[in-house]
TrEMBL record:
GO molecular function, one term: oxidoreductase activity, acting on the aldehyde or oxo group of donors, NAD or NADP as acceptor
Protein name (database record): Aldehyde dehydrogenase
CDD domains assigned to the protein according to its UniProt record, in alphabetical order: ALDH_DDALDH (cd07099)
Active-site residues per Swiss-Prot or TrEMBL entry: 233, 267
Organism expressing this protein natively: Tumebacillus algifaecis
Family: Belongs to the aldehyde dehydrogenase family.
GO biological process, one term: aldehyde metabolic process
Listed PROSITE patterns: ALDEHYDE_DEHYDR_GLU
Domain of life: Bacteria
Length: 523
């Protein structure tokens, strides 16, 4: 039996021990989930949503206990646990309570006139058993949101929480149990990488993964063996572009929050700041002064994962060796804990690891740019494309720049918060991921779509069916030219004939009397 130990990274204290699930237990969970699927998928949507409502109410009723548990497991300050985990989770539940029935209803679509008399629609059906594999940085929000989206769409879920924050996995298991979800509809499989691998090899019908690029690639490769669809929400190296006409004080405060909230362990952290040359010195001065005022344990919490803190230190060392200057911070704050001083760096360039790789820690490298074109080029010079921000009081310019950024998401005059708008689809481009959730896409991504075209079936046959005749060939030649060719390519007499031909062909094929010569088709 293997146990995971939960350490509170802000104090170094051992908080709990949680037993890992074995591969046999994972397979047994999959068998139970498959057995639970028919009843859950056929449960009317409003009843499924009632369980979600209970979950939301529980979260809110127990807001202090939930925030305290998250803080214990991650080291984040409690206000961030409420503001960036509990609040957006409750908000998206509320959003789907109101809109899921619309998003999941069959959608009528148009039917071209060549299929005259038919009608068409799309149905959204659950896929089966969805695996949700989560990271440690927002262990509540990044778990519950995909879990509940899959459940609303009618799927059962096998959930593998992060081994770095197992206490939150236990909390989520209890919340779903207390909300009264039927047995085996959501099962929590505590454990580390091996448990995650076991979940993937149990052949779920879809894998929703949030985590690093390296793991995402492994999961996608394993899923490919069985053609399991994957959604990957991966890392980022988000740029912030500050133009000289931005409200500079606002941009300074935005940069601080964007880089240091959750100790910089946000997939959409501000990881690179490009400032227009005329205001660069002033921006750096103000950022350094404001950073030094941030209070440990009040505005910024500890980091969560010891290995992540080592990576942050390695990025700083590499940058300094290549000529960067640490303007403030740059060191751990308290032995035995994972507090790390919010750090501002200048003199950075694209040869440094901290400009290329995801740091996922409280580092804010700042560099100047000369022109709009240069800013866009530098911002796009990354293998990531998760989020970005553009700062200017000229919204025409800001939107023009946003359009040129190769990024799944962009904020204008703000950072990160676009992810908390449940109406906006969320996901990355390039190495930042595949797929979108939130919004209607957040339910559709957990559905099989079935496209249906209905023919009333009252005619004996259709015009395109056998036998093929010269009239049919002529009719389709003319029709194709008419609909899709250059405007003048169908002379008027041909047009007149077309309708005659279509009508005659139709009548003939449907057994109506038609006097015409039957010729063979040219071979
Ligand atoms: P990680 O990739 O190390 O682990 C994520 C999860 O995958 C964990 O539960 C882990 O146990 C599991 N896992 C590891 N190897 C596995 C395997 N071979 N098969 C199946 N499961 C496996 O990531 P992490 O360190 O927990 O999280 C940090 C990363 O997540 C950062 O790169 C961050 O940018 C990214 N992230 C992305 C988003 C987003 O929405 N795009 C959000 C948060 C975090």
């Amino acid at each position: 039996m293997t146990y995971m130990v939960q350490i509170n990274p802000a104090t170094g204290e051992k908080v709990a021990e949680i037993k890992e699930k074995s591969q046999t237990e994972v397979l047994a969970a999959m068998t139970r989930a498959r057995a639970a699927f028919p009843a859950w998928s056929q449960t009317p949507l409003d009843r499924r949503l009632a369980f979600l409502r209970r979950l939301r109410e529980l979260l809110v009723d127990q807001i202090d206990e939930v925030a305290a548990t998250i803080a214990q497991a991650t080291g984040k300050v409690q206000v961030e646990a409420v503001m960036t985990e509990i609040f957006p989770t409750a908000d998206i539940i509320h959003y789907y309570e109101k809109r899921a029935s619309d998003f999941l209803a069959p959608k009528r679509v148009k039917t071209p006139f060549v299929f005259w008399g038919n009608h068409s629609y799309v149905e959204y059906k659950p896929m089966g058993v969805v695996a949700v594999i989560s990271p440690w940085n927002y262990p509540l929000y990044l778990s519950i949101v995909p879990i509940l989206s899959a459940l609303v769409a009618g799927n059962c879920v096998l959930f593998k929480p992060s081994e770095v924050t197992p206490l939150v996995g236990v909390l989520i298991e209890k919340l779903f149990a207390d909300a009264g979800f039927p047995a085996d509809v959501v099962q929590v499989l505590h454990g580390g990488r091996e448990t995650g691998q076991a979940v993937v090899s149990a052949k779920p019908d879809k894998i929703f993964f949030t985590g690093s690029v390296a793991t995402g690639k492994k999961i996608m490769a394993a899923a490919a063996e069985h053609l399991i669809p994957v959604e990957l929400e991966l890392g980022g190296k988000d740029p912030m572009i500050v133009f000289a006409d931005a409200d500079l004080d606002r941009a300074v405060r935005g940069a601080l929050w964007g880089a240091f909230t959750n100790a910089g362990q946000v997939c959409m952290s501000v990881e690179r700041v490009y400032v227009e040359a005329p205001v660069y010195d002033e921006f750096v001065r103000k950022v350094v002064a404001a950073t030094q005022e941030l209070r440990q344990g009040v505005e910024f919490g500890s980091m969560t994962y010891p290995l992540q803190m080592q990576l942050v230190q390695a990025h700083i060392q590499d940058a300094v060796e290549k000529g960067a200057r640490v303007e403030c911070g740059g060191h751990a704050l308290q032995e035995g804990t994972l507090y790390f001083a919010p750090t501002v760096l200048t003199g950075v360039n694209s040869s440094m690891r901290l400009m290329q790789e995801e740091t996922f820690g409280p580092l804010l490298p700042i560099l100047p740019f000369a022109t709009e074109e240069q800013a866009v080029k530098q911002a796009n010079d990354s293998e990531y494309g998760l989020n970005a921000s553009v700062w200017s009081q000229d919204l025409v310019k800001a939107k023009r720049v946003a359009t040129q950024l190769i990024s799944g998401n962009v904020c204008i005059n703000d950072v990160i918060t676009n992810v908390a708008n449940p109406h906006l689809p969320f996901g990355g481009v390039k190495h930042s991921g595949i797929g979108r959730y939130h919004g209607p896409e957040g339910l559709h991504t957990f559905c099989h779509q079935t496209s249906i075209m209905v023919n009333k079936g009252t005619k004996p046959r259709e015009i395109n069916w056998y036998p093929y005749t010269p009239e049919l060939q002529d009719a389709f030649h003319t029709l194709t030219r008419l609909l899709f060719g250059k405007k003048r390519s169908v002379p008027f007499p041909a047009l007149k004939n077309l309708f005659k031909q279509m009508l005659r062909t139709y009548r003939k094929q449907n057994g109506q009397p038609w006097q015409g010569e039957q010729k063979n088709l040219p071979m």
